[in-house]
Write a structure and sequence with these properties.
This protein is α/β, with parallel strands linked by helices. It has twelve helices and 17 strands. A hairpin with a 2-residue loop joins strand 4 and strand 5.
Length: 424
């Protein structure tokens, strides 16, 4: 038996022996809400640090200034870094998972914070994205440290548990990297399917306020209906989706750009002509697109729609104000990510018994913040074959515990390869 095979067997056995403990760890993480908004996420970080301490791990606490947190629409953020050194030399590999999640919403048949296990699946918000990978990454490192020849490994592993993925990552990975609190050579971020993800879409989110003139519904001609104006603008925006289908990405797994209007609010009462309406839009950008050009184009489309709506009117018509909420660049593959991709695919095929593809995804993540700084990274962790199977961001989100166990083994084996290879 080769040294590598022996090490892999020891890793797999340790994970199997401690899997019940891993499941309880995940259940404890799911029990502490991190709904974002409102984004009061420090309590979860403190609970995570407490649980990690039971494993002998000391978590550094890195909280952005409260003014910065509030400016970014959240209540509290404390990021965690756990540094686990091995032998001198070698690479520093970061494992990043985010604890913040969207609120549960309606339609659940299980307690969103209960971590209930039914037919081998754990249900709860963030079981699939991405508190599951708090456990995947933590227990992968623990398994690696328990291997008999751990002294032969070189380098360092860092656990980065952050709390600002839903709002763009500025308070999470960006804060850690911008303040030189970490500088890894390679990174793996929380996954959501069997695939190794090497690229993802960018995302632009904007808040548009349409101003009209409030009036009594009995004399509507005395006002300007902001809702009708918003309807006209949104109609022009939605027309773009037909055009976006003609723009295709060369990245496998990514199709074309698209636009969604996800929130709308306005008006004061049923018998009042709305004087103000606000809506929020989300524009996904394929890796080949220029983000500045995309934003400029959307602003021009809305300006033209306002001009068309106001044309020929005797009153002042509507006006709009636009606020950019989020600008996330697309993640593009860096040449240095090949060691990550190859190791994950090799061990993934062994553990899962099927080929593991390397693809792009139409989602966006805060992995881009590492990649933008020249740190090669990929997305891989616990998840089903497809994102839809996990019910991520939907009711009854769940993780198949067999997938959790297998992904933990793949990560641990991959770390063993990277820390034993000086050229990784």
């Amino acid at each position: 038996m080769s040294n590598n095979t022996q090490r892999y067997d020891q890793i797999d056995q340790w994970i199997d022996q401690h899997f019940d403990e891993q499941v309880e760890f995940l259940k404890a993480l799911v029990a502490v809400p991190t709904d974002t908004p409102p984004g009061n996420n420090t309590p979860h970080a403190l609970r995570t640090a407490e649980l990690l301490k039971d494993f002998g791990y000391t978590a550094e606490h890195h909280a952005p200034p409260i003014e910065m947190v509030r400016e970014n629409g959240m209540e509290s953020v404390t990021n965690l870094i756990v540094r686990r050194p091995f032998g001198a030399g070698g690479k520093t590999i970061a494992l990043n998972a985010h604890g913040d999640v969207v609120p549960p919403g309606e339609g659940w048949t299980h307690d969103p914070y209960g971590g209930e296990i039914v037919d081998g699946k754990m249900y709860g918000r963030a079981t699939a994205v991405s508190k599951c990978d708090f456990s995947t990454f933590t227990f992968a490192v623990r398994a690696l440290e328990a291997a008999a020849d751990v002294t032969k490994l070189k380098g360092q592993v860092e656990l980065h548990f952050t709390y600002d993925e839903e709002f763009g990552g500025i308070l999470g990975p960006d804060y850690l990297l911008a303040n030189n609190l970490t500088k890894p050579d390679l990174m793996i971020a929380a996954g959501f399917s069997y695939q190794v993800v090497t690229a993802h879409n960018g995302c632009l989110q904007m808040e548009v306020t349409v101003n009209g003139n409030m009036a009594h519904a009995a004399i509507p001609e005395s006002g300007v209906d902001a809702l009708q104006g918003a309807h006209a603008i949104m109609g022009e925006l939605y027309k773009q989706n037909a055009l976006y289908k003609q723009i295709t990405s060369e990245v496998e797994g990514i199709t074309h750009p698209y636009l969604n209007i996800g929130m709308i609010s306005g008006g004061t009462n049923t018998n009042v002509v709305p004087g103000k309406v606000t809506f929020k839009l989300d524009r996904r950008m394929i890796p080949e697109e220029d983000t500045a050009a995309v934003e400029a184009n959307l602003r021009q489309i809305m300006a033209d729609a306002v001009t068309a709506f106001n044309k020929g009117r005797n009153d002042a018509g509507i006006s709009i104000s636009i606020k950019r909420l989020l600008m996330c660049e697309a993640m593009k593959p860096l040449a240095g990510n090949q060691s990550l991709v190859q190791a994950l695919q090799t061990h993934g095929e062994t553990i899962f018994g099927e080929p593991i593809p390397a693809l792009g995804t139409p989602l966006y993540t805060d992995v881009r913040l590492y990649v933008e700084r020249g740190i090669p990274g990929v997305i891989y962790g616990a998840g089903p074959r497809t994102v839809l199977e996990s019910h991520a961001k939907r009711a009854d989100e769940r993780i198949d515990l067999a997938d959790l166990r297998r992904a933990t083994k793949v990560i641990a084996r991959t770390l063993a390869d990277l820390l034993s290879s000086p050229t990784a």
